[in-house]
């Protein structure tokens, strides 16, 4: 048996990329170097999974925390179609401008709303103003504030909605977060979900072109 390691993980992802085919617009968003942190966008398979989950659940309203160059946003917007709405929150205005160009190139910008600012502040305003509930929430923002983001997502989601959180295994560091505030934020969020009767939670470890990590799928089952 061939030894497993990062090089093989990447090779397998390349082999499986046929199941997450990209057009030129998606590829440009995924490989953009114009954003503040190039290379941290979701993987191709994660983008396809978001698209499938949104389509399979019939999501019409999607909330996204963290859009970077708009890669995951395009996948989600194509899933909901022009009769739906994607509301994306991005901290950095320059990133948002890059994402908007990619959304326009993809032909989906008409049904994507972008809010610039800290996700905690933007979602707090949404809760306060009583926006229409969301069918699916995707969280890919900083992890130090993840517990707050998950709680806000649950407040803003309808019963039965899905909340998907990327990067929750952190290369296994959740076992010993030390003084890494990003990892500690994940641990706090996962701890808050334990015993929460409002939700069902599944967490999957992943390896691939993005390294060793994982994602959480949270289903809101009660208000």
From TrEMBL:
It comes from the Bacteria. InterPro entries: Cation-dep_OMT, SAM-dependent_MTases_sf, SAM_O-MeTrfase. GO terms for biological process: methylation. The keyword Cell membrane does not apply. Keywords: Methyltransferase, S-adenosyl-L-methionine, Transferase. Signal peptide: none annotated. CDD domains: AdoMet_MTases. GO terms for molecular function: O-methyltransferase activity; S-adenosylmethionine-dependent methyltransferase activity. SUPFAM superfamilies: S-adenosyl-L-methionine-dependent methyltransferases. Pfam families: Methyltransf_3. This is O-methyltransferase.
């Amino acid at each position: 048996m061939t030894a497993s390691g990062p090089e093989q993980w990447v090779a397998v992802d390349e082999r499986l990329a046929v199941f997450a085919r990209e057009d030129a617009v998606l590829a440009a968003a995924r490989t953009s170097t114009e954003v503040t942190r190039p290379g941290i966008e979701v993987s191709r398979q994660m983008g396809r999974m978001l698209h499938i989950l949104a389509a399979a659940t019939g999501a019409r309203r999607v909330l996204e925390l963290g859009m970077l160059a708009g890669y995951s946003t395009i996948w989600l917007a194509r899933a909901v179609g022009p009769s739906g709405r994607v509301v994306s929150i991005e901290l950095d205005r320059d990133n948002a401008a890059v994402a908007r160009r990619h959304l326009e190139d993809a032909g989906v910008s008409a049904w994507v709303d972008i809010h610039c600012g800290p996700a905690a502040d933007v979602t707090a305003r949404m809760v306060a103003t009583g926006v229409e509930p969301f069918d699916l929430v995707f969280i890919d923002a900083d992890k130090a504030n993840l517990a707050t983001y998950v709680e806000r997502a649950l407040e803003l989601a309808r019963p039965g909605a899905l909340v998907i959180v990327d990067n929750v295994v952190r290369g296994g560091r959740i076992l010993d977060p030390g003084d890494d505030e990003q990892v500690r934020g994940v641990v706090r969020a996962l701890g808050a979900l334990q015993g929460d009767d409002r939700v069902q939670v599944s967490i999957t470890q992943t390896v691939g072109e993005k390294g060793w990590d994982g994602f959480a799928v949270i289903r809101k089952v009660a208000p």
